[in-house]
Write a structure and sequence with these properties.
Order of helices and strands: HHHHHHHHEEEEEHEEHHHH
Structural class: alpha+beta
Radius of gyration: 21 Å
Distance between the termini: 61 Å
Strand content: 5-15%
Number of strands: 7
C-alpha cells in the first residue's frame, strides 16, 4: 500500500499502538473507545454519552499534537517544493490556540444539541467538562510547544531531512484521508507513523516525542517504532536490516539517535498484537449486542488513577472514582 492510500480500511476489530495501550490500561476504556459504536445495543443515553466522549482527546496530549501538526505541515511543504514556514515554533503555539478554540466551539454545539462542527482538531476533555485551563496553564502549554519545535528547527534531524531528495519524504496522510494500516500475523494493524524517509538504500522511521524521557518511555518508544517497521517490511518489502528507527525526544533536543530493528523486539510486538487480537475477537464474538456481557468481558481497571485520567466520565469507572472521593471526604460539600 502506498503512503496515504485510503481505498481500503482495516476490518474490525483492529489494533494500533494506542489501541493496545488502551486495552492494557483499562479494558473497558478500549471497549468504550473502539467498540461501543460497532455493536447494536440501542440508542440509550449511555450509548450517546460514550459516543460524545469518544471524540475527546486528553488534555495532556495538546502539546504533542500541536507540535506534530506544525512539523507535519512543514514537512509536507518540503516534500511538495513549497517554502518552509518562517516561524515554526509560533505555528505550533497557534495550533494550541486552535485546539482550545475548537474545543469550546464543539462543547457549545454538543450542549445546545446542534450539529457537531468538524475540524482538523479534536475537542479536549477538560474544556468539554467545564474545567477551563488557567491563563498560566495556557502560557505553559504554548511555551512547551514553542520549545519543542525550536529544538526540531535547531537539531540534527532537520539538517538530515534537508539533505534528502524531497521525493523520498513520506508524511502522514492529511486529516480525514485515513490512516495507513497493514496485516501483522493476521492482525489488522493501523500504523500512525510521524515521518519516514524512504530511499533505495534504507528506510528511516521517525517518531516525535514531547514527553519526559525516562527508561519506561524509551522502552515504549522502541516498541512503537517496531510496529511501524513491520509496516515497512510488509507493505514495501523492505529488509529489516535496511530500516533505521529514530525516536526524537524534542523535550530534550532535536538530535538524531538511530538504532536498528531488533528481531527480538519484532517477535515480541507480533506476539503482543496476536494475543491481544485473539482476546478481543473472542470477546467481541461472545458479547455481541448483550450490554450485560460487556461488564464481564471488558472489566474496569483496578487502578483508580486511570479512571481519573479517563475521558469517559459517563463510564461507571469514573462514577466509582467520584464515589470514592465522596467517601474519603464526607464533609466536602458542607
Amino acid at each position: 500500500m502506498d503512503p496515504g492510500e485510503t481505498s481500503r480500511y482495516a476490518l474490525f476489530p483492529n489494533l494500533s499502538w494506542l489501541g493496545m495501550r488502551r486495552f492494557r490500561d483499562c479494558e473497558r476504556r478500549w471497549y468504550n473507545a473502539h467498540a461501543v459504536n460497532k455493536i447494536d445495543h440501542g440508542k440509550t443515553e449511555l450509548h450517546w454519552a460514550l459516543h460524545r466522549e469518544g471524540r475527546l482527546a486528553p488534555w495532556n496530549t495538546i502539546t504533542g499534537s500541536s507540535v506534530d501538526k506544525a512539523i507535519t505541515a512543514a514537512l509536507r511543504c518540503r516534500r511538495n517544493g513549497e517554502p518552509w514556514p518562517d516561524d515554526l515554533p509560533q505555528v505550533a503555539a497557534d495550533h494550541v490556540d486552535g485546539f482550545i478554540a475548537f474545543s469550546r466551539k464543539w462543547a457549545d454545539a454538543v450542549r445546545s444539541r446542534q450539529k457537531w462542527p468538524r475540524s482538523e482538531y479534536q475537542p479536549l476533555d477538560r474544556i468539554y467538562y467545564g474545567d477551563e485551563p488557567t491563563v498560566q496553564e495556557l502560557k505553559d502549554v504554548r511555551d512547551r510547544a514553542r520549545e519543542c519545535t525550536a529544538r526540531f528547527e535547531q537539531g540534527e534531524v532537520k539538517r538530515f531531512i534537508f539533505e534528502q531528495n524531497p521525493a523520498t519524504l513520506v508524511v502522514p496522510p492529511a486529516e480525514g484521508e485515513g490512516i495507513p494500516w497493514t496485516t501483522i500475523d493476521g492482525v489488522p494493524t493501523y500504523t500512525s507513523y510521524d515521518f519516514i524517509v524512504r530511499t533505495e538504500e534504507e528506510v528511516t522511521i521517525f517518531d516525535w516525542k514531547t514527553g519526559r524521557l525516562t527508561e519506561l518511555s524509551e522502552k515504549k518508544a522502541v516498541m512503537q517504532l517496531h510496529i511501524y517497521a513491520l509496516y515497512a517490511i510488509n507493505e514495501w518489502g523492505v529488509q529489516q536490516e535496511r530500516i533505521r528507527l529514530v525516536p526524537v525526544w524534542l523535550s530534550v533536543s532535536g538530535d538524531m539517535h538511530s538504532f536498528p530493528v531488533q528481531q527480538s523486539v519484532l517477535d515480541r510486538v507480533v506476539l503482543d498484537l496476536r494475543k491481544t487480537y485473539d482476546v478481543l475477537f473472542e470477546r467481541m464474538e461472545r458479547t455481541g449486542a448483550n450490554i450485560a456481557a460487556m461488564e464481564q468481558d471488558f472489566p474496569l481497571t483496578d487502578d483508580l488513577r486511570e479512571c481519573g485520567r479517563c475521558m469517559f466520565r459517563s463510564c461507571e469507572g469514573y462514577r466509582r472514582l467520584q464515589a470514592k472521593v465522596d467517601e474519603d471526604n464526607p464533609f466536602a460539600g458542607e
